[in-house]
Amino acid sequence: MERVYVESEAMKWVAYNASSRRLEIGFPDGRIYEYFDVPENVCLELTTSDSVGKYFIANVRKAYRYNQIIGPCDEPKAKPGRKKRPGERPRGNSLRRPR
Fold it and tell me: How many domains does one find in the chain?
């Protein structure tokens, strides 16, 4: 499948396989979804729409069976907290003496 890059804030690219009627969509955060049994005209209308994102929401997102192939590429953010200072002893249960 050849990727067609689209001008949209909602998605980066679209790829379509006519023989399997499978549509793949790549999103800006790295997620990739595949949609099954999508007619070729829907893919064509999606890529030529004035608003790719609006067309996707109205005509594709909940209309076809889908599967997430790849999740977001963003790594989980570290939990905010106080940084340990050099030479500082651990806090919490680690200071308790065994019974």
Answer: 1
